[in-house]
Write a structure and sequence with these properties.
The structure holds 2 protein chains of 2 kinds. By secondary structure, chain A is mainly alpha-helical. Chain A has helices spanning 7-24, 30-54, 86-103, 112-131, 135-144, 146-156, 161-190, 195-200, 205-222, 231-238, 241-266, 268-273, 275-294, 299-327, 332-366, 377-380, 382-395, 402-417, 419-443, 451-454, 461-479, 482-500, 504-507; strands spanning 63-71, 76-82. In chain A, a hairpin with a 4-residue loop joins strand 1 (63-71) and strand 2 (76-82).
Chain lengths: 509, 481
C-alpha cells in the first residue's frame, strides 16, 4: 500500500517546525509549550503508526520514496525512502519523542520552551537520518542532530555538563568529518549522491578499505565501540534524563543503522576483509565494558557502560555474517545475526530508555545518582520497584523480555561462526545479570537505607504511564517478536544477498 | 574592445559620484541631521545594485565585456561579487549607524571613506590589467588605513593603523615589484595579453617565476593568510568595531577577485607553480588560524584568527585551478563575508554605551537576556564551524571536494581535522551564551532597522544553507563549471 501524500516529509518536518513554533512562543508560557510539544509529538507518533500500517513488509525495495532536486549543480537530491531497517527505528524514535515530552513535564522548569523545542527538532532530524537516501542529506541530518543535543546537555545537564557536552560534540564531529571525505570521494567517482546507487557501484578492495575506515570513524564513535566510547559515560551522566533517554534509545542506534546502510552494502568486501577488527572490538566491548560496568558507583554510568556492552552485540551481529558464510554451507545463521542485531537495537532502545527514566525518577526525588545513597527503595516505592526490576531483568537478558530475543539470536549466529565468539558473547548473560541484579539488590531491595529513602513517594500517574508504556513494549517484543522480525526480514535477506557478491569483480579488477 | 565604453562602468561611476556628493552634502548638515547621510549612502547602494542588474552587455551570449581599452572587465563573477558587496555594505551601514551614534562618532567620514573603499573593491573586482588591480587595491587600502584610525583618540586604533599602513605599504610594494617583473617578461599590462605572452615565453621563465612569487606575497598579505597574517589580529582588535566589521567583509571579496584575475586570467599557465605556493599558505593558515583562535579571550581577535583560517579555505578552493574549485572559493568568500558581518554585528549589538563588547565574556548568558539574539549568534558560530545545515558547511564541503578532485587528499584531511579543532572555539561562544550566567541583566535594545538587519543576516545562515542551490549554481556558472 502506498500513500499519496509525502508521509516521510511530514514526519520529519512536523516536529522540526513544531519545535521552532514552540521556541517562538517564549519562555513565559511554559504550560502552553508543554501542551504544544505533547500535541506535536503525539501526532508524529500517530503518523508513524500510519507509516507502519501502510508499509509493505514483503519487499526489500524502498517505499514512500520522495525525490526532489536540492542542489542541482552537484546532483544532490532531497531523496527519502524507508525499508525494513528504517521503519522500526523510526517507530522507536517517534515513540521516545512522545515519552521524553511527558518525562520532562515537571522535572524541567527552566526554559521549558527551549527544552521541548530542542527535543522535537532532534526527533525530526533523527527521523531524517533514518529516511534519507541521499548521502549528503543523510550527512546534514546526521550532523545537525548534534546541535540540539549539545544544547540540551549543556543547559539542563549536571555539574560537569560543559565538559561532557563539548566532548560529545567534538568526538562525534571528528568521527563524521572522515566519513564526509569518503562521501565526497564516492560522489566524485560515481557522479551520484544516491546511497542506493552506491550500493551497486563497483569499487576496488583497496578503495573499499579506506571508505570502510572512514565510515567506521563516524559510526564507531556514534554507536559507540570500544575504544572510542569514552564520551558516552560522560554525556550520559551529565545529560538531563530526557537527554540520556534519547541518547541511549535512539542516537546510538544511528551508528548501527549507519553500518547497515553504508558500511555493509557500500563496502561489502572490505567489511568481509576487516570483519575480524569489528568482531574483536565488539567482543572487547561486550566483555571488558561489562566488567567496567560492574564496578560503577553511579547508576547512570553503570547503565551507560551497559549500553556500550549491549551495542557491542549489535556490531557483532552485523559483522558475524561473513564468518558464518565462511563456516557454513547454508549461511542460515547470517540472517539470524543481522536480525538479532536489529532486534537488539530496538530492545536496547526500550530498555536503556526505561532504565534512564527509572534513574530519573529517583534523581528527581533525592537528587543523587549514587548507588550508595539508596537501598530498600522497594519498601517505599513498590510500584516503581516492580517496573524497575522488570527493566533491569530485561537488561540482563531474561527470557520473556525483549533483551533476551536479540542477544539470543546473535549468540546463536555466533555459534555458527566460531565457538569462541559465541562463548565470549554469552559472557554478557552472566556479566549483564551480575551488574544489573547487583544494582537492583543494592538500590531496590534490602532494608531502608536512610531517612531520605524512607520519605520517598511512589511514582505518580505520569511516571507510571511513561514506564508502563515502555514495559508493555519490552514484554511485547520479548514474547512475540514475530511482527518486528517480519518487518525487516525482506530487507535483511536482500542485504545478505548483496554483501555476498564481491564488488571488485564487477569493477573488473 | 578598443573603445572606452564608459557606460559599462556605470555602477563604478555612480558610486564615485555619490561618494563625492556625500562628502559635499555633509558640509551643509548639522550633527542632528546626519541621518540623511546614512539614507544617501543606502540609496547609493540600492541604485548601484539596480544599475548593475540592469546592465545589458551580454547581447551575444558571452557574459563578458570590456571597457577602458581592455583594462576593465564586466562578467558574471564580477557582477555577483559586486551585488553581494552592496548587500553586505548596506548591512554594515545599518549596524554602523547604531554603533557610531552610541560611540558619538557619527560622522560622515565613515560613509565617504567606505564608499571610496567600495569603489576600490568594484574596480579590483572588475580589473583586467595590472594597473587597474593596483589602482583598486590602493583605493581600498588607503581608505582602510584611515578607517582603522577613525577613532582618533584611541591609542590602540592609532597603533593598529600605523601597523596596518606600514605592513600594507610593504605588501603593495611587493605586489608592484612583482607586477613590474611580469610586465618586464611579457611586455604588457593587460591580463589577457599577459596570459598569451606567458604561453609564448614559457612558464619556467625565471623572471616570470620571480614575478609570480612577489605577486603571491602581495596577494597573501591582502587576504591575510599565514605567514603574512601578522597584521590581522592587531588591526581587527585595535580598529573601532565598525571598521573591523567593514574590513573583514567586503574587501575580502575583492581580494578573492584579485586572486582570480591575477592567477586565473593572467598566469593560468603557471598554475603548477602558484598551486604549490597557495597550498602551503592554505595549510599554514588553516592550522595556525584555528589553533591560535583557541587561546583568545577577545572576540575581535578570535574572529581575526578565524578569518585567517577561512581565507586558508578560500585558497584551498583556488589552488586546484579547476572551474569547480574557483566556484567553490567564490561561494566560500561570499558566505564568509556574510558570516563575518553577522558576527561583528553581534559584537556591536552587545556594546553598551561607549564600551565595546569585545571580551568573550560579554557574551555570557546571552540566551537568558535575549534568546533570539543568542540564536542568531549560535547560527553564525555553527555556520563558521561548518556544521550542517548552516551555509558554512556547504562552503566547506565544496572546497574540500575541489581539493579531493585534484587528488589533494592530504590537504582535505588536514582541513577537516582542523575544522574540528576550530569547532572548539566556536562552540565555546555557544557555551558562554547558553550555559553560563549573564554578567549583566541589562536590556539589549537596538533600533528597528538594526534588529531587522541582524535578523535577516542571521536567518541567511540557515536560509542560504537550506536553499543554497541557486547561489552555488551562480558561483559555478561564473567559471563555466
Amino acid at each position: 500500500m502506498s500513500l499519496n501524500w509525502p508521509i516521510l516529509s511530514v514526519l520529519i518536518w512536523l516536529p522540526i517546525l513544531g519545535g521552532v513554533a514552540i521556541m517562538a512562543i517564549g519562555e513565559q508560557r511554559a504550560t502552553l509549550a508543554r501542551l504544544m510539544a505533547l500535541a506535536v509529538s503525539l501526532l508524529t507518533f500517530v503518523l508513524s503508526i500510519v507509516l507502519y500500517s501502510a508499509f509493505d513488509n514483503s519487499t526489500a525495495a524502498m517505499q514512500f520514496v520522495e525525490l526532489k532536486p536540492w542542489i542541482e549543480t552537484f546532483d544532490i537530491f532531497y531523496r527519502l525512502g524507508v525499508d525494513g531497517f528504517s521503519v522500526p527505528l523510526i517507530l522507536l524514535t517517534t515513540f521516545f519523542g512522545f515519552i521524553v515530552v511527558i518525562a520532562g513535564w515537571e522535572s524541567i522548569q527552566q526554559k521549558v520552551n527551549q527544552y521541548m523545542a530542542a527535543f522535537l527538532i532532534m526527533e525530526g532530524l533523527m527521523i531524517g537520518v533514518f529516511s534519507a537516501l541521499d548521502a549528503l542529506l543523510f550527512y546534514v541530518f546526521f550532523e545537525a542532530m548534534l546541535i540540539p543535543m549539545f544544547i540540551v546537555i549543556g543547559i539542563w545537564g549536571g555539574p560537569r555538563r560543559v565538559y561532557a557536552t563539548i566532548k560529545f560534540f567534538l568526538y562525534t564531529f571528528l568521527g563524521s568529518v572522515f566519513m564526509l571525505i569518503g562521501l565526497i570521494y564516492l560522489y566524485s567517482e560515481s557522479g551520484s549522491w544516491s546511497i542506493l546507487d552506491w550500493h551497486q557501484f563497483p569499487l576496488t578492495l583497496a578503495v573499499q578499505k579506506w571508505l570502510f575506515l572512514g565510515f567506521l570513524a563516524a559510526f564507531s564513535v556514534k554507536i559507540p565501540m570500544w575504544p572510542v566510547h569514552t564520551w558516552l559515560p560522560d554525556a550520559h551522566v551529565e545529560a538531563p534524563t530526557g537527554g540520556s533517554v534519547v541518547l541511549a534509545a535512539i542516537m546510538l542506534k544511528i551508528g548501527g543503522y549507519g553500518f547497515i546502510r553504508f558500511s555493509l552494502p557500500i563496502t561489502p568486501d572490505a567489511s568481509a576483509a576487516l570483519d575480524w577488527l569489528i568482531i574483536t572490538l565488539s567482543l572487547i566491548a561486550v566483555v571488558y565494558i561489562g566488567f567496567v560496568a560492574l564496578v560503577q558507583q553511579d547508576m547512570k554510568k553503570l547503565i551507560a557502560y551497559s549500553s556500550i556492552s549491549h551495542m557491542g552485540f549489535v556490531t557483532l551481529g552485523l559483522f558475524i555474517a561473513f564468518a558464518v558464510f565462511q563456516n557454513t554451507e547454508s549461511g542460515r545463521g547470517a540472517a539470524l545475526g543481522v536480525e538479532g542485531a536489529m532486534v537488539q537495537m530496538i530492545s536496547h532502545g526500550f530498555v536503556s530508555g526505561a532504565l534512564f527514566l527509572c534513574v530519573g525518577v529517583l534523581y528527581d526525588r533525592l537528587h543523587s545518582r549514587m548507588i550508595a545513597d539508596y537501598g530498600g527503595v522497594a519498601n517505599t516505592m513498590p510500584w516503581f520497584a516492580a517496573l524497575a526490576v522488570l527493566f533491569f531483568m530485561a537488561n540482563s537478558g531474561l527470557p520473556g523480555t525483549s533483551g533476551f530475543v536479540g542477544e539470543f539470536m546473535v549468540i546463536l549466529a555466533a555459534f555458527q561462526a566460531n565457538f569462541w565468539y559465541a562463548f565470549l558473547a554469552a559472557m554478557t548473560l552472566i556479566l549483564g545479570a551480575a551488574y544489573s541484579l547487583w544494582l537492583v539488590k543494592r538500590v531496590i531491595f534490602g532494608e531502608v537505607a536512610n531517612r531520605n529513602v524512607e520519605q520517598l513517594e511512589d511514582i505518580n500517574a505520569r511516571e507510571a504511564l511513561v514506564l508502563g508504556l515502555i514495559a508493555v513494549a519490552v514484554l511485547a517484543v520479548g514474547l512475540w517478536p514475530a511482527p518486528l522480525v517480519d518487518l525487516m526480514h525482506a530487507s535483511v535477506e536482500q542485504l545478505l544477498q548483496h554483501i555476498q557478491q564481491p564488488k571488485f569483480s564487477v569493477a573488473g579488477i | 574592445m578598443n573603445s572606452t565604453n564608459m557606460l559599462l562602468a556605470a555602477p563604478e561611476l555612480w558610486v564615485m559620484v555619490m561618494a563625492c556628493v556625500i562628502l559635499i552634502v555633509d558640509l551643509y548638515l548639522g550633527e542632528e541631521r546626519r541621518g540623511i547621510i546614512h539614507m544617501l549612502a543606502i540609496l547609493t547602494l540600492v541604485f548601484a545594485a539596480i544599475i548593475t542588474l540592469r546592465a545589458d552587455y551580454a547581447a551575444d551570449g558571452v557574459r563578458e565585456a570590456f571597457a577602458f581599452n581592455g583594462s576593465y572587465i564586466r562578467d558574471t563573477m564580477g557582477d555577483v561579487l559586486k551585488l553581494f558587496s552592496f548587500l553586505i555594505l548596506a548591512i554594515v551601514y545599518t549596524y554602523a549607524k547604531f554603533c557610531l551614534r552610541q560611540f558619538r562618532m557619527f560622522r560622515a567620514d565613515f560613509y565617504t571613506l567606505s564608499l571610496f573603499a567600495l569603489l576600490g573593491v568594484m574596480l579590483l573586482i572588475s580589473a583586467n590589467s595590472l594597473v587597474m588591480i593596483y589602482l583598486g587595491l590602493e583605493l581600498i587600502s588607503l581608505s582602510s588605513y584611515a578607517l582603522v584610525a577613525f577613532d582618533r583618540d584611541s591609542r590602540l586604533g592609532s597603533e593598529a593603523a600605523i601597523k596596518y599602513f606600514v605592513l600594507g605599504s610593504m605588501a603593495s610594494g611587493m605586489l608592484l615589484y612583482g607586477m613590474s617583473m611580469i610586465y618586464g617578461a611579457t611586455g604588457t599590462m593587460d591580463l589577457g595579453q599577459v596570459a598569451q605572452a606567458v604561453r609564448s615565453v614559457g612558464s619556467d621563465d625565471p623572471l616570470l617565476v620571480f614575478g609570480l612569487v612577489f605577486l603571491v606575497v602581495g596577494l597573501a598579505f591582502k587576504l591575510g593568510v599565514v605567514p603574512f597574517h601578522m597584521w590581522i589580529p592587531d588591526v581587527y582588535q585595535g580598529a573601532p568595531v565598525v571598521t573591523t566589521l567593514f574590513i573583514s567583509s567586503v574587501p575580502k571579496m575583492a581580494a578573492f577577485a584579485m586572486a582570480i584575475r591575477l592567477l586565473q586570467t593572467g598566469l593560468v599557465d603557471m598554475q603548477a607553480d602558484w598551486s604549490q605556493m597557495l597550498s602551503i599558505l592554505a595549510v599554514l593558515s588553516i592550522i595556525l588560524g584555528n589553533v591560535a583562535a583557541i587561546a583568545q579571550t577577545n572576540i575581535k581577535r578570535m574572529l581575526a584568527y578565524s578569518t585567517i583560517s577561512h581565507m586558508g579555505f578560500v585558497l584551498m578552493g583556488l589552488l586546484p585551478g579547476t572551474a569547480m574549485g574557483y566556484g567553490a572559493g567564490m561561494f566560500y568568500v561570499i558566505v564568509y563575508s556574510l558570516m563575518s558581518a553577522a558576527g561583528f554585528g553581534m559584537v556591536i549589538l552587545l556594546s553598551a554605551r561607549g564600551v565595546e563588547a569585545e571580551k568573550l565574556d560579554d557574551f555570557k548568558g546571552l540566551n537568558q537576556r535575549n534568546s533570539w539574539y543568542a540564536a542568531i549568534m549560535a547560527m553564525v558560530m555553527f555556520s563558521m564551524a561548518g556544521v550542517p545545515v548552516f551555509v558554512g558547511f556547504f562552503a566547506k564541503w565544496m572546497v574540500i571536494k575541489a581539493a579531493l578532485d585534484a587528488g589533494l587528499m592530504w590537504l582535505a584531511i588536514i582541513a577537516v581535522i582542523f575544522s574540528v579543532v576550530g569547532a572548539f572555539y566556536y562552540l565555546r561562544v555557544v557555551k558562554l551564551m547558553y550555559f553560563d550566567e549573564p554578567l549583566t541583566e541589562a536590556e539589549i535594545d537596538a533600533p528597528v532597522d538594526f534588529r531587522a538587519a541582524i535578523s535577516l543576516n542571521g536567518i541567511m545562515m540557515i536560509g542560504l544553507g537550506i536553499f543554497s542551490s541557486s547561489l552555488i549554481a551562480v558561483c559555478m556558472a561564473s567559471f563555466g563549471a
